[in-house]
Amino acid sequence: MDAYDEGSTARTGRGVPAQPGSSAESETSTESETSAASEVPTESEVSPTSEVSTKSGVSTKSGVSAGSASSGPRPTLGPLPAPRAHVEGGPSPLPGPPPVPGPPPVSGPPGEARGGVAVLALPYRIVVALALAVVAVGVCVHLGMTFLHVAPANTVTRQHGEAVDEWIYPEFEQNWKLFAPNPLQQNISVQVRASVRGADGLTVTTGWYDLSAEDGRAIDGNPLPSHTQQNELRRAWDFYVATHDARNRPVGLRGALSEAYLRRIAVLRLDRNDAVRATTGGGGVVERVQMRSRTSNVPPPEWSREKVATTPSYRELPWWDVPRDEAVGGVR
């Protein structure tokens, strides 16, 4: 009996003794390997052009003998078998590529967490809502009363001024004149006239020249009016009124300064005016000047029931002598 016998006492290899009880296991493993090998397609089965003979000695289409003993069996490479599903108790599957980590699943609580007023019972919610409404109404009323207190005189304050004062005084007294001064509700025009001595020695008094109207005409339609046109005359008149009483007597040490400042502005304006030279024939000299203000109330709108007098009022200042250096145009 040679090594290729298939009996129970067949040897497994040259020089290797047979082991008892291994014939059944070897037959089982041989059958499983044979069945697995038959399932894997060979290169001849995959390639459509290869024709392999099952008998020894028949050459293939490529000219290689399948039964040549000198060359031995040629290994064939077939496609890899598809991965088989892992069966419990069977061999473990081949390890694959590691899984790509992804974002963790978002798992929220079964119910939304409530906080604040929502955790209170319905009666308490109603009480909180009413308290907030009362506070909001109180804040709005206070802001409205404060606005009426600091706002200029208007129809509402004239009718309900006592109620506003009772709310404000004494705890909430306000004085915001620095930040919100009262807007002007009157038109104030500064006018001047001069006593001019001509070349013949006669003195002629000119008419009133409205200096404020001249500034207004220069500003009207000018996108970039000068600071002098807007504020010089107005600030000079305010300076004079603040340093003099109703009888035009100076109050404090700045009274004389305000008089000189206002007088120099008037002389400069008269020297530039052609009407003064036309009065004296072109060679006159200004000896004295007098200034006055014309004040008229701004008429109310048509929808207002307010009645305001529109008759203008005047405040005339005394005559001021013009020094010689100012009269000849020395002041610029």
What do you see in this structure?
There is one protein chain. The protein is α+β, with helices and mostly antiparallel strands. Helices cover 35% and strands 11% of the residues. The protein is built from nine helices and six strands, in the order H-H-H-H-E-E-E-H-H-H-H-E-E-E-H. Strands 1, 2, 3, 4, 5 and 6 form a six-stranded antiparallel beta sheet that branches. The protein is elongated, with a radius of gyration of 59 Å. Residues 1-5 and 7-71 have low confidence and may be disordered.
Feature tags:
alpha+beta; 6-stranded antiparallel beta sheet; 332 residues; 35% helix; disordered N terminus
Low-confidence stretches: 1-5, 7-71
* Shape field: elongated
Structural class per helix/strand content?
alpha+beta
Q: What radius of gyration results from the CA coordinates?
A: 59 Å
Please write the string of helix (H) and strand (E) elements: HHHHEEEHHHHEEEH
Report the portion of residues in β strands: 5-15%
Produce the secondary structure layout.
Elements: H1 23-39, H2 43-46, H3 122-150, H4 155-168, E1 186-197, E2 203-205, E3 209-210, H5 211-219, H6 227-242, H7 255-272, H8 274-279, E4 285-297, E5 313-316, E6 320-321, H9 324-327
Antiparallel strand pairs: 1-2, 1-3, 1-4, 4-5, 4-6
Helix pairs in contact: 3-4, 5-6, 6-7
What's a concise summary of this model?
This protein has 332 residues and is of the alpha+beta class.
